[in-house]
Structures are given as C-alpha cells and as structure tokens.
Amino acid sequence: MAGSAKTHVGAGGTLRVGWEQSFGFTDTFDPTGEYLGDAFGIYSSLLVRTLVGYNHVPDAAGNKLVPDIATSVPVPTNGGTVYTFHLKPGIKFSPPVNRAITSKDIAYAMQRMARPKNGAQYSFYYSVIKGFDAYGSGKAKAISGIKAPNNSTIVFTLTHPTGDFLYRMSMPATGPIPQEVAKCFEGQPGKYGLDQISTAGYMLKGIDKVDISSCNALKAASGFDGQTILDLVRNPNYDPKTDSRAARENYPDEIQFIVNSSADDIYAKIDAGELDLANSTIPPQVLRKYATTASLKPQFHQNSGDRTWYITMNLKKPPFDDIHVRKAMN
C-alpha cells in the first residue's frame, strides 16, 4: 500500500483501515519523537523518506539497507568514523512547502532531535555523532560532527566506529524536516505531527491548504485530528523516478486510518465491505471462520509484527539476584 506515483492496473480508489481502540502514537505522530512501530511503518512506506531505508520484503532480504534519499549506501572512511551521503536530485517536500530538499533539511532534523525540549525519544542513538550531546545540552552552537558543505552533500563524523550507524540513519526522526514549518513548534513536542510535511508518496489530506506564511497562521491539516482519523492522499510532488524502494507502489489514491473501539465491529465492517484492512487483534471467531472455510481462506492475510517484547531485571539487586526468582519470572 505504499509509495510511487506509477500507473498500475487497478490503481486508484480509497484504502480504508480500521484501527482498534486508539492510534497509540507516542508523540502525536511527530517523527522527531514518535516511537510506535505502527507509526514507523506509515512513515517509511507512505510519508517520510530517509537517507537509507529498507525494501520491506519478506525474510532476510528485508533487512538489507538500500538507498532512499541518498544516491548510495556509503562505505565509512577514516577508520569507520566518517559517513558521506550524496542526495539524489529531484526530491521535494509536499505542498505547501513545495521546494527541493537539501542537506540542510537533514541537518536541521538532527538538530531538532538533539534539543531535549522537542520530545525526541531515541536521540541517544545519535550521541555517537561528534558534538551531538554538547549541542543538545547547550554547550555548543552547532553539532560539530554534522557538515553540509553543499545542498546535496551531508557528512557525519562519529566519536568512534559504530557498526549499526547506517541502520540508525534509517529511522524516521532522521528524515528531512523543513525548518520554515517545524520552527513554529519548537519546544512543543508532538505538535508538528499535525502539520507534518511529506517527502514520500502520500501526504496529510488538507496539508496543501495550510497557510505556512507565519507561525500564527498555521492550523492543523484537516486530514489528521490526532485521535480518530489519519487521512492520506497522494503527494503531487513525489517523483517515483527518484525512488528505487520496492515498498512504495502507490496503488490507492487515498488511505484512511480510522479508529474504532471495537475489534468485532472492525471485522464486521470488513465483511460488509465498509473497511478493507484492520490494524487490530483478530477476534477468535473471525480467525476460526476464515481459517476453516475453504472459500474464505484466500481472503485471509495476516501480517505479524516483527518485534521482541522484554522486561529488564537488575541481577545485582534483590529479588532478581536470586536465579530461582528469575526462573519463576520467566
């Protein structure tokens, strides 16, 4: 359901997704602070392009990093501490910004994340960038390890080699953010999520009507209220020629994520043709019906979340210093 503005047989229409109980967004869908896996999927497939990303294909191939905004996945230099990215031409922000993204937009996203008052929830992943923490604490006026020598080049210098740094740069908080809009939400965690400017195949419905001429004029886009509806439409500034990612196919013209408190009601609406998909726990009776009825099996598609849930235990303090307690917990 993601991506490019290519023309496909059967493309068009509206994809309607029932979302059980609440979106559960951790930062009102502001990519600087959002840390919900479901939100990450929407960002990566539909709204936010990063320097590198994934193809979203099954199994091990889905873990391979591929270029997105960058022309290639760079090989680090200087003993594994310097990463130089070159940006593809022709990638633009959605309306109402309507301009080409530059390396400075990525640098700004990193600066925004470094400032604690903006609500970033995983900024510590980037403490390996030289000067990142000093800037965030107000001890420096810039992040010394981020340089944008021209509009199409950005260079990161790390304090020490970090093997998963490229994977960290695939996370949505690192995607380009236009300062002319996001500056209006400085120190207001989550507020930018209601006026998020897209770089991928879709954008918030109504964002093109938002007045960004001044911070006082800014109003939330009509397609997202933060609680009950997230309505996305095609981004007219998205050029599929700049995108080699297999995840972005842009089949629907519009994608609506609609909150519903009842899983039973969501699946009843799917049966009735009022919804197409569900982001929800499958009720046992629905699972049984589709798993055991031959004519319905082809219509049943379940996508499990690829994640690990865990509880931490301090093994040096009671009661978890006792192996028997740990076994009982396990």
Task: Report the portion of residues in β strands.
Answer: 5-15%
> SSE order in H/E notation?
EHEEEHHEEHHEEEHEHH
Largest sheet: 5 strands, mixed
Separation, N- and C-terminal Cα atoms:
38 Å
Q: Assign the structural class, choosing from mainly alpha, mainly beta, alpha/beta, alpha+beta, or little secondary structure.
A: alpha+beta
Strand order of the main beta sheet, please?
7-8-9-1-10
Radius of gyration: 21 Å
Q: What is the overall number of helices?
A: 8
Q: Judging from the principal axes of the Cα atoms, what is the shape? A: globular
Rounded mean pLDDT is 92
Q: In total, how many beta strands?
A: 10
Q: Segments where pLDDT lies below 50 for 5+ residues? A: 1-9
Helix content: 10-25%
Question: How would you sum up this structure, described in words?
Answer:
18% of the residues lie in helices and 14% in strands. The chain is built from eight helices and ten strands. The protein has helices at 37-47, 103-114, 132-136, 165-168, 179-182, 263-271, 284-292, 323-329, and strands at residues 14-20, 52-54, 65-67, 82-86, 146-150, 153-157, 202-204, 229-234, 254-260, 277-279. The strands form three sheets. A five-stranded mixed beta sheet has the order 7-8-9-1-10, covered by helices on one side. A three-stranded antiparallel beta sheet has the order 4-6-5, covered by helices on one side. The two termini are 38 Å apart. The model is unreliable at 1-9 (pLDDT under 50).
